[in-house]
Amino acid sequence: MTTLTLAKALNEGLRAAMDADSKVLVMGEDVGKLGGVFRVTDGLQKDFGEDRVIDTPLAESGIIGTAIGLALRGYRPVCEIQFDGFVFPAADQIITQLAKMPLRSLGKLKLPVVVRIPCGGGIGAVEHHSESPESYFTHTAGLRVVACSNPVDAYTMIQDAVRCDDPVVFFEPKRRYWDKADVEFGAPGLPLDQARVARPGDDVTLIAYGPMVKTCLEAAAAAEEDGRSVGVIDLRSLNPLDMPVVRDAVNRTGRCIVVHEAPVFNGLGGEIAARVTEQCFYRLEAPVLRVGGYSTPYPPSRLEDHYLPDLDRILEAVDRVFGY
Amino acid sequence: MTTLTLAKALNEGLRAAMDADSKVLVMGEDVGKLGGVFRVTDGLQKDFGEDRVIDTPLAESGIIGTAIGLALRGYRPVCEIQFDGFVFPAADQIITQLAKMPLRSLGKLKLPVVVRIPCGGGIGAVEHHSESPESYFTHTAGLRVVACSNPVDAYTMIQDAVRCDDPVVFFEPKRRYWDKADVEFGAPGLPLDQARVARPGDDVTLIAYGPMVKTCLEAAAAAEEDGRSVGVIDLRSLNPLDMPVVRDAVNRTGRCIVVHEAPVFNGLGGEIAARVTEQCFYRLEAPVLRVGGYSTPYPPSRLEDHYLPDLDRILEAVDRVFGY
Amino acid sequence: MTAPTTPPELVQLLTPEGERVEHPDYDIDLTAEEVRALYRDLVLVRRVDLEAVALQRQGELGLWASLLGQEAAQVGSGRAMTDADMAFPTYREHGVAWCRGVDPLHLLGLFRGVNHGGWDPYEHNFHLYTIVIGSQTLHAVGYAMGIQRDGAEAASLVYFGDGATSQGDVNEAFIWASVFNAPVVFFCQNNQWAISEPLEKQTKIPLYKRASGFGFPGIRVDGNDVFACLAVTRAALRNAREGNGPTLVEAFTYRMGAHTTSDDPTRYRVADELEAWKLKDPIERVKAYLFRSQLADQEFFDKIEAEAEQLGKDLRARCLALPDPQPTAMFDHVYVEPHALIDEEREQFTTYLSGFEGAQ
Amino acid sequence: MTAPTTPPELVQLLTPEGERVEHPDYDIDLTAEEVRALYRDLVLVRRVDLEAVALQRQGELGLWASLLGQEAAQVGSGRAMTDADMAFPTYREHGVAWCRGVDPLHLLGLFRGVNHGGWDPYEHNFHLYTIVIGSQTLHAVGYAMGIQRDGAEAASLVYFGDGATSQGDVNEAFIWASVFNAPVVFFCQNNQWAISEPLEKQTKIPLYKRASGFGFPGIRVDGNDVFACLAVTRAALRNAREGNGPTLVEAFTYRMGAHTTSDDPTRYRVADELEAWKLKDPIERVKAYLFRSQLADQEFFDKIEAEAEQLGKDLRARCLALPDPQPTAMFDHVYVEPHALIDEEREQFTTYLSGFEGAQ
Ligand SMILES: Cc1ncc(C[n+]2csc(CCOP(=O)(O)OP(=O)(O)O)c2C)c(N)n1
Ligand SMILES: Cc1ncc(C[n+]2csc(CCOP(=O)(O)OP(=O)(O)O)c2C)c(N)n1
Ligand SMILES: [Mg+2]
Ligand SMILES: [Mg+2]
């Protein structure tokens, strides 16, 4: 057991993946000497060389496009997108090529490419550095989308993502990069497509992923003081969703709130709400509520505390869901 | 009154918009002499000149990026994306610039840019020519997203979109381009952000837009023979949604089905289902059901009839929604 | 052989009249058999194309993108590759597919809508058709970076059109290839048109010059001259394999037909242009050369003609016999590993379908 | 004046030692007053930058992207514009902002997180900062196409870095500008680094040569020489306004500081490099020139120094006084016209907020 930050857990996970398979490459802007702006790739170039840890030209479409080509040649590239807001120049390569080429080839081509995206707000950054673009990818068939929320998962999930033969978009909660936990090297985690009951609860189920898991756990603890038993599910996998775990929880509580940083409108919360409602219709005491970002571009950082779901907003939703 | 196809109605609408305001430009690939691959811009270059109807280099990011620049200089560009599947190279300019620049400027800049996208399947085309990418844009704050379903709306909506001072993503149902209706030149339509009750109904409400409106109307007619009164709402505006119209209908029927061609997973249907459930919770006799594309890339054309919602799939959902 | 008659910037080894000419930097020694083989390729490839157009007209294909006029560019470059090289085509490289040994039936399958690409790219080292303009250039560069890492003797050869040169991706591919010195040859078929847009909508200067701004050589070759296309591409590929980095080859040619069967070129180009280019037909000049140099006789030409006819007939028959995919096939291969959502939807769909059984 | 000492490809009019040199194609006649004004700009701009770095260190700004070392490139090009020209900056063009008359407080506001860009772009013909690398190059070209349509006497001047040249958008901007002959000047500040990546990760050949492949002129100027930057940009802008199309100007300079205040350059570059560039400081050479040619005396320098101090002090005070925006401000200006969803969310939010009133 070693105490690691989430960033360091990812770093160790990547290191293990590169040790295990010489075809694994890391590529992106500033991933080499600098070790990435969040130091997730720190030291990897020094240890694995410039052929396996590639500082690329500054162009995201080029990063994903050449990663696809490398994958076609048998490599397993792990691409870093420097910040959430900079994934869009690569949208075409991700959506029309990475996601669709395996089907296009009737399974003859596989593209084990991982696209790592530090995501979310709460770090006081300038524009484009605090976004949550997961819905653009969960809506794109052919991609797997996952989000880690803590160092233990980060360590195993990144390795599982690298081992996965499908393309995986891997979200990392940047404001949790410095959160610490004890990580056991070599220990396996939950399968990549399974959700985790982060906290059981009888009265209401909070569904979250990435940075909001911690916030939800805090809200659950606060609610307990008011005598409410609030469960929290950490989805981990955003596409596919682990509906059995979600269903079980909601069937028990009859009340459900989805929490994410992305704008609510047409966000993943809508999908979850619609599915939960269809699958647990007779058990629901209230509509599934959603707490998330507003339908505005991510605001300047002096306003982000208002924009982001926090304890108060979650607890307010808990109150509301009991109002039905 | 003149009988026009939907394509011709758009053409006449664009012509009227260009006549009304000399700042209106049309730009895109093959929009000039060819008049666009669907002839929506037919004859416009001949009549308005190459300065106002611009055949651009073959690059979608360039089209939207330069359109933004032209808008900053006071022009009102109407950009054509040749097919739905080719909008992604422009994703960055649309999502990080077009949608966000007005807020970024605290309202000092407005970007009255229209992005026209022929969308949807059913025409037996090759890959990338049959997609329904609306969710990528409805989830993007700062954009208005609309879809026309018939020649009458096409004629007025395109003019309203051009007149609108916000950026508008304008979806055109390509398999309905050749549908005809009587159009009255100069007559105003519903406001751009309002939904239309395409058919009133007492038992169940179908919510659709673009190409699926016609399919829903046919399904409603078929259901009537079975004694079911099925209403159809043509959303017209996908962001914002016209919730009052939707709510009224669902509160009456207590049953609601959303139909679209895009994959159901994290599609607009999820948002509508979540909202309707929250706003009409006590009136709903059944969960809001969704009929849409599957979570696969758009299939080869020999399979598209299986992929696309049709009469049978809608009627099957109608049966199901009565099973609750 | 005589001195060249075209501007020096255009590499030409065989004139439209079928005369062999010299070029200071590029030449090629072909045996009679090799020339006859090239001629056969050209004729058969055109025949496949013709049959496909006919099939489309008769409603058997949803669409077809004809290569008419571009046979030499495709066969010349296609035959320049070794087995180890990897080709990345657009949607029009039927001639290259032929050279790589891909059964033309697979191409028809795609345009018939039976699948999005039915061949095994690794079997022929011929990647799937890419429809999104320019995307494949980055794949080719990435693949070439893989070749570098493998220490293999191979190169990527990537095809794209004049219109494609305007896409950001293509220019990023130039940058990547240059910076990483990747073993890739960029083969641009400048057929003068991107659907209805003439070349001047994409560039003000000859396209092959684009490369110089990225720090690697560009060269323009007569795209209707199969010898020149072979010689120039072969040299560029060898150069790439030897670690000397990328080359841009601009094959100067002409799209003799419509953009695709959906297109109507009379709306945007004049007939004269086509007539002028007909005089530069890529097949006629090889035929003239074979005749003139007595490398082939009428019997040979008749034999090829007959082979072409048979090929067309067979292809048609096999195309009509192409079975539609099973409905549930749309769920296959979306993911390589099990995926709960796909499984759920497949099951729902199967149940739904079974509801129709016995009905009607 | 003496003969130039730098390689001919680099336009230089003032050596690092403060000597005026000649250039065959570019020269400039500046009055003493003009030179002193440029010096003042350089010093004040550096002072603003310094204050901002200090404010960031003290937690008053979330981030700052220092222009240290790039003052001459920015002031030279910034002063080359007429009022009618339109500038499109990245996130580092504080010196250009200064030349356009934008209150530096607005720049601080952005980095403090008060807004995403608080000035009126039309008031100063200085567009908002663009953070997504390269996007603004297309906006500048589109704007220039608007200028063409207006028949106006103006041009766009768009800024970007060496790293940005790898983005598809920038290359598409080159194509558009060339094909439409748009009145735009591409001003690339090659400060040798894109965060931790040195120039050779973006290109193998000098960046100014990129333009030739797109069919328009490229020129490299000493980016630490304010005279040369002024002369070359002025000529390029004039050329653009006169209908002769785009120019790429590569200002060869150096990022003396960290990429931003979040960056730690000791991880990726050696101290020697910085020392070498210090000898080419853009301000020192103008000071030396002013001294040497007796165009200014100590009193002048002292006055500017004092003005700079005052500017820094004022700026600090005004920065600390910057009010946070109202919470509901995040809903303003998302759309120009009424939008039901925004209205609904604003109302919900207001109700939610009011629940806290009186609480605690
Ligand atoms: C990204 C993208 N935009 C638009 C299209 C539609 N489209 C298909 S082919 C074509 C023209 C291509 O011209 P060129 O690159 O010269 O190739 P050619 O067809 O002449 O072989 C266009 C615009 C597309 N396939 N992809
Ligand atoms: C599309 C995009 N990708 C990545 C980034 C993150 N980023 C910010 S600045 C920068 C380096 C820019 O280098 P250069 O263009 O040389 O400009 P400089 O910062 O040196 O002025 C990077 C990678 C970004 N802002 N936008
Ligand atoms: Mg072409
Ligand atoms: Mg730089």
Please give a handful of descriptors for the protein shown.
heterotetramer, A: 324 residues, alpha/beta, Rossmann fold, 12 helices, globular, C: 360 residues, 2 domains, two-stranded antiparallel sheet, 8 strands, 43% helix, binds thiamine diphosphate, binds magnesium ion
Please describe what this structure looks like.
- The complex is a heterotetramer, with two copies of chain A (324 residues) and two copies of chain C (360 residues).
- Chain A is an alpha/beta fold and 324 residues long.
- Chain A has two domains: 2-183, Thiamin diphosphate (ThDP)-binding fold, Pyr/PP domains (Rossmann fold), CATH 3.40.50.970; 196-321, Rossmann fold, CATH 3.40.50.920.
- Chain A has helices spanning 6-20, 44-48, 60-72, 91-98, 101-104, 134-138, 151-163, 212-225, 243-253, 268-279, 304-307, 311-321, and strands at residues 2-5, 24-28, 53-55, 76-80, 114-119, 144-147, 168-173, 180-183, 196-199, 204-208, 230-234, 237-239, 256-263, 289-293.
- A seven-stranded mixed beta sheet of chain A has the order 3-2-4-5-7-6-12, with helices on both faces. Chain A has a five-stranded mixed beta sheet with strand order 9-11-10-13-14, sandwiched between helices.
- The model of chain A has no long low-confidence stretch (mean pLDDT 98).
- With 360 residues, chain C is of the alpha/beta class.
- The model of chain C has no long low-confidence stretch (mean pLDDT 96).
- Chain C has a six-stranded parallel beta sheet, with helices on both faces. A two-stranded antiparallel ribbon of chain C has the order 5-6.
- Chain C has two domains: 32-325, Thiamin diphosphate (ThDP)-binding fold, Pyr/PP domains (Rossmann fold, 3-Layer(aba) Sandwich), CATH 3.40.50.970; 328-360.
- At the A-C interface, α3, α4 and α5 of A face α6, α7 and α12 of C.
- Bound molecules: thiamine diphosphate (2 copies) and magnesium ion (2 copies).
- One magnesium ion (MG) binds at residues 161-163, 191, 193-194 of chain D.
